[in-house]
Amino acid sequence: MAHREDLKGQIAIVTGASSGVGWQSALRLSEAGVKLCVTARRRSALEKLRAEVLQRGGECLVCEGDVTVPEDVERVVRECVARYGRVDLLVNAAAVQSYGHFDQLPWEHITRVFDVTCFGYFRFARAVLPHFRAQGHGHLLNVQSMLSSGSAPLLSAYAAAKHATLGWAQSLELELAGTGIHISNVMVPSVSTPMFDHAPTMLGKKPVPVPPTYDVDLVARAVVRLARRPGRTSVPAFLQGRLMLWLNGIAPSVGKAVLRRYGEWMQTTTTPLHRPEGNLFAPVEEGVGPRGSVPPTPAWLRFTAPPAPASP
Ligand SMILES: NC(=O)c1ccc[n+]([C@@H]2O[C@H](COP(=O)([O-])OP(=O)(O)OC[C@H]3O[C@@H](n4cnc5c(N)ncnc54)[C@H](OP(=O)(O)O)[C@@H]3O)[C@@H](O)[C@H]2O)c1
Questions:
Q1: Which of 99, 197, 275, 290 has the greatest CB tally within 10 Å of its CB?
Q2: pLDDT (tens digit, 9 = 90+) per residue, 149-196?
Q3: Which domains does the chain have, with CATH numbers?
Q4: DSSP alpha helices (H): ranges in 189-230?
Q5: Rounded Cα gap, residues 142 and 150, in angstroms
Q6: Contacts with 189 (C-beta within 8 Å, 6 or more apart), sequence order
């Protein structure tokens, strides 16, 4: 059985904390007594998060940086250790995606998606591991996706990067057995974050998550549970989570048939949109706030057929 951590006074670096899963996880960890070092490219958004954490009685160091820049990553970890004396937990959450058919995606989008979504996790892990090893303990918690073990049309580069990240995390877990360093993963369903307001698209139409969309707090609460009992893989949703994994195990052709028939339709609205780069290479400063514009699907609607994606 995994051991239990008392989170009070623990030190965590949270990447991708300027919005979405990273933002909400940082807030929830802070509520549990964790002292934070939060990072992303948008300093102004991180300062808003810091203000919210301080208002609730927490501690929060803001270190902006780009996960594709090794010097930034090293600096964030250095500043965290300089401020708090150590780092106990790394929550890897920063990611980007780009919508389009594979042969339509500019090559730079494919490599950038990997550089942020996959190699960004590797860079932060390599920067904290020497500290974890010297301390004899540490916890690397990776925000994964149901696409880390699944598939979807229009998101081939993102899905590939997520698969790679899960394979890496599972291999690292084997390497680190017995060192006191734990690896955890949370398999995230569609959640209400600005990811869909920021992502570039080659389709000329506004993208939306595969329904149903869950409240982002579902994931943040799973992050806190993993922080308390590290070394596990959490699948917090039932319908777009445990049920889907079970169905894919016993009848993989069912899920594939649904995605082949409806996958593109479910992810695109009819609203015209020209957003060829989104937040891929530079942040979208005038963001839509930490939770984005797509509301969670009400619980009573989750088991019904998804409504036709609307034009907002
Ligand atoms: N939303 C979903 O439905 C969903 C589903 C499955 C998995 N996930 C996973 O959840 C995690 C968080 O995504 P989200 O939904 O919360 O999306 P989000 O709101 O767009 O958050 C992405 C975060 O990554 C940061 N980021 C992007 N590029 C960066 C870079 N080059 N360097 C540093 N930070 C960078 C962004 O901040 P800046 O722009 O300020 O840098 C932002 O804080 C990701 O790992 C994603 O794969 C999300």
A1: 99
A2: 999 999 999 999 999 999 999 999 999 999 999 999 999 999 999 999
A3: 11-301 (3.40.50.720)
A4: 195-198, 217-228
A5: 17
A6: 146, 212, 214, 218, 236, 237, 239, 240, 241
